[in-house]
Structures are given as C-alpha cells and as structure tokens.
Specification:
ten-stranded antiparallel sheet, 26 strands, mainly beta
C-alpha cells in the first residue's frame, strides 16, 4: 500500500505543486487503487495503480474528510515511474475542501454537536463450565458439526470438510470474491470497481483480533500463516475468532388446553475474520447452528470513499457530506456504490454426487381444481446443465435452490437435501456496456452452478487485475457441462447498494448482507426436538436488580 505514496513524494513536478499550493507534502496521503481495464493502455504488461490523494493535518484527523482533487495520476509500481500526470479541467490543482468539523471519530475528537452517549452497564458473557466446542489443531467439533479451519491470502476464512452428525454437507466454503463498483461518472470515481479479493486479498488484509472488542465471550483464536508478495512468510496472530453465542429461542409451544409449555433455547457457533481494504472494513462470518443451518454474513463498516465536486455544484451520483461556508468552497461528497460478495460452496450432501433443483412458489391456475382460487404450491424443476443454472433471484416467487443427494433417502422416500435461501439483493446497476462488466460479468446473475474443477476457484478467474478479456464463470459455463449427478459447486452473488447517508459519516455503522443454507429433507424430523432444557444460568429479572440499586 505504501509504494505509490513513496513514489509520488519523490516526483519533482508533484513536489513543486505541493510547495506552490502551500501543502506540507509529509501530510499528503495516497490510497492505491487498481485501474481495472478501460483501454489497451491498461493492459497487464505493466502493474499500474492510481492514487486517491488526501491531506491529513494531524495523526488524529480523518484524512478522508480532506480529499485532494485536480490531478490524474497513474503509477507503474514495477518500474516506479509516473506514467500519467495531468490536470483535471474545472478544478484548481490540488483542490482541498474546507475542514469539516464533524469529520473525526477518535474518542475525544469526534462530533462536538452530538450529546455524549452515557456509558452502558457492564455486560459479561461467561461460560463457567467452559466452551462446548473442542479443537485439535485445525479440526473443530461442536454440537454434531465437524469441520476444519483454513485461511488463504485471497479468500480469508475457509471451511473444509463440514459434516453434521457424521454426514457430509460441504467439501469447501469461502467468500471467493468481492467487487465494489461506483456509480459516479466523473474521474476518478468511474475507475473505482475494485476486486477486493482478487486484487487486494481479503486474507492478507486481515486483522489480529482483540478479545472483548472484535469478539466477546469465551474465544478460541486461529492464527493465519501466509506467503508474502516476495515469497516470504507472514503470521497474522488471532486472524480467526471462534466463539458460541446465544441465539434466542430455537422452538416453543404452549398447549392452550393444559397450559403445558415446552421451550428450547438455541446456540450458534460463530467463525469470523475482519479486514481493512483502504477505507472500508469488512467482517466475514460463518455461523453454524444446532439445526444444521449455516448462515453466511458480511458486516460492512469503516469510512465511505469520498470525493469532491466544484463550488456551487451538486452531483446526482453522490451524497453531499459538507458544503463549507464560502461560495468558492469545493464540496465534500460520497459517491453511490454497490458491494457484491461471491460465496463459493463446494457441496457434498450425503456424498459427492448431487443433483440441483430450483423451486418457485407459484399461484394455482383458475379452474375446477382450484374452486376457491386460493391455491399456490412449490414448483420444483431439475436443473441439469450449467447454462440452465445461471439464474436470478426472485423474491416474488420465493425462489430457492436445493442440492439433493443421489444415494440417500429420507423416511418419505425423497432424496435428502440442503436448501440455499438467497439474499434479497439488487443486481448491478451499471448498464450492460459498463467497462467493469468485462471483468465482472458474473455479477449479472445471482446464482451459478458448475461441476467441480480444481482450476475453477475464483468467479472472475485467477488474475482479474487489469484483465483485458472476460474470464471465470462467464467463460466456464459456456461449455454447458452437465451438472446432473455431479460434484456440484454453487456460486451465490449477494450484496447491497449503498446510497450514503449523513449518518454514515464520519464512520459508518455496520450494514449487513447475508444468506443461509439449511437442511431440506436431510432429516426425518426436526434435528433440535431433543435439545436439552436450558432455562438456567445467570439471568435475573431486571426489576429486582434496579430495586437493589
């Protein structure tokens, strides 16, 4: 990350401009961005980065509140040369918005207009008898689940060989890619279409997690050993956090005749890692449940990517964060953008050979077979080829997909299965000719399925950075291979559209994007019907504690 900044600060024309504009060059910061591919000038014959420039007057300042505008810069980081250095029309060179009094977030240095939030009473999460999971190296066992923890520079957390009550569910699961396209048509924002896994690496940017802050409770950590860009070794301590959480009521029923009530609480096992990619933080969570379900969740926080617009202008592609008081002040804005995540799920439901079905809930047709016109039902379709498996989500029909075993049946004679309930997310909103679709065509559909191939690991191909041609899922699926009775790999594209709010500034409260897998006919009855009663522990009535106080 520091290479472009170092190169730029040695470049004589830039140094002279800073002096001319009265800027302390030591306070100029440069966030590196990959350029994508817009023309042959971006061909991968050289490694290019462009710097987003900011001005940080003190170590406690949020530099994203002071973006520097007015220059187009491109850097070849292999030759350490500046290959583009041009002025942007309409801007004064190195334009700087006025200082926003609400831009900081450090304790004691944030939002003077807001009333201080009173401190909370202490909340301890204790397990006096210890954790319910067991760990042997990378192998974990918990409540019928058995799996192995992995970690890669590109994907971060990987779940291997997941079985439930001794039966295989998944061979491998990971967050294989993440793409963030911006909707602003002005420079430099149109170039912001980052592949945060394929270009930056989610795992290599992972945090060393802190107990009580990033994770709370009785925690087990896993370290991550990674290779560096130069072939060395790097150890990230406490890269993955694992702990149990109370998950509310699992099930409850009260017999209204007898008054007898049965209730069981639920618990989940949470695996997580967090990473910083420039201004944003992402938390990736895999949550395993006692009923056999698996929730995949991403939390988005950090600081929105900022830019500027000329004095007296507004941008329909961005939210204005701060205007300043003078007519000639340039304005601080945060462009609209989308975050897309791609989960890669190598399924193995009761064995490697599986079938795939799509289910849509549809209204019954009018006729004698539907005399009261109230009929609707789940319509199930067997998907047998890759092209047929390229699908959109459809909330109107509660569309979902079931992976079924080809060898094991449940007590009703149906093949056992697991269902993927997709996220309710919007499609990419750039039009079909948007340059980023050349590398990220897989975003156009939310569901893909392919037969396992060891060389097909990432939806945009192995090398998306400056890639001049389509690669990955859009090309592999053109073969239209059979996915009937195959080792199936599911790819789910999910995410969120971010229209920035003032409340997202100066630091963004967590947003969420998630989907889940759960058993579908995998068992003969509810797998949690025999959960033990757990109406014990340290819970007390709050009114008694208030009375004591």
């Amino acid at each position: 990350y520091d290479i472009p900044e170092r190169i730029l600060k040695k470049y004589k024309p830039f140094v002279e401009l800073c002096v001319k504009e009265g800027l302390d060059i030591s306070k100029v910061k440069a966030d590196p961005w990959c350029p994508g591919y817009f023309s042959p000038a971006d061909a991968p014959t050289r490694r290019l980065l462009w710097p987003a420039l900011y001005y940080q007057e003190s170590a406690d300042d949020n530099m994203y509140g002071r973006p520097l505008s007015g220059l187009k810069i491109m850097i070849d980081i292999q030759s350490e040369e500046i290959v583009q250095f041009e002025r942007i029309q309409g801007y004064k060179v190195l334009s700087l918005p006025p200082r926003d009094p609400l831009m900081n977030y450090y304790e004691g240095n944030s939002c003077p207009r807001l009333q201080a939030i009173p401190p909370l009473k202490r909340l301890d999460i204790v397990q006096p008898e210890g954790a319910s999971f067991s760990v042997s190296d990378q192998k974990v066992e918990w409540q019928g689940w058995k799996f192995y923890i992995g970690f890669t520079s590109r994907e971060g957390l990987v779940l291997h060989l997941a079985t439930f009550h001794g039966r295989p569910v998944m061979y491998r699961a990971s967050f294989a890619e993440m793409v963030v396209p911006y909707g602003d048509t002005d420079y430099p924002n149109y170039m912001k279409n980052a592949f945060d896994a394929g270009e930056d690496g989610l795992g290599r940017n992972a945090h060393s997690l802190k107990i009580g802050c990033d994770c709370k409770g009785l925690i087990h950590y896993f370290d991550a050993a990674l290779t560096t860009d130069t072939g060395g070794c790097e150890l990230i301590k406490n890269a993955v956090c694992m702990h149990e959480e109370d998950d509310g009521i699992s099930w409850k029923h009260k017999d209204w005749r007898s008054g007898r009530t049965e209730v069981r609480r639920s618990r989940k096992l949470v695996l997580s890692f967090l990473c910083t990619v420039a201004n944003y933080e992402y938390g990736f969570f895999i949550e395993l449940r006692q009923d056999g379900g698996i929730q995949f969740n991403v939390k988005l926080t950090g600081i929105v990517s900022t830019s500027t617009v000329p004095p007296g202008q507004d941008s329909k592609y961005a939210t204005t964060l701060f205007r300043g008081n003078r007519k000639d002040d340039i304005q601080l804005v945060a462009p609209i953008h989308q975050h897309f995540f791609v989960a890669r799920l190598d399924m193995a439901v009761d064995g490697i050979k599986n079938n795939l079905y799509e289910v849509n809930v549809v209204s019954e047709s009018i006729g004698k077979h539907n005399p009261y016109n109230n009929g609707f039902y789940a319509q199930k379709k067997h998907i047998t080829s890759e092209i047929d498996a390229v699908r959109d989500c459809n909330t109107a029909t509660s569309r979902h997909w079931i992976v079924e075993s080809t060898t094991r049946k449940n007590r009703t004679g149906e093949y056992t299965g697991y269902v993927l309930h997709p996220a309710a997310s919007t499609p990419p909103l750039g039009n079909d000719k948007a340059a980023f679709f050349q590398r990220a065509g897989f975003l156009k559909k939310q569901f893909w399925a392919t037969p396992f191939n060891l060389d097909e690991r990432f939806p945009g191909g192995d090398f998306p950075n400056q890639c001049p041609r389509p690669d990955g899922l859009t090309e592999w699926t053109k073969k239209n291979r059979s996915i009937e009775k195959q080792d199936l790999v599911l790819w789910h594209v999910f995410g969120t559209t971010h229209v920035v709010r003032l409340e997202d500034w100066p630091v963004m409260p967590c947003a969420n994007a998630s989907f889940k897998l759960e058993p579908f006919g995998f068992f003969d009855c509810s797998p949690v019907v025999n959960l033990p009663k757990e109406c014990i522990g340290a819970s007390v009535a709050a009114r008694k504690e208030v009375a004591k106080a």
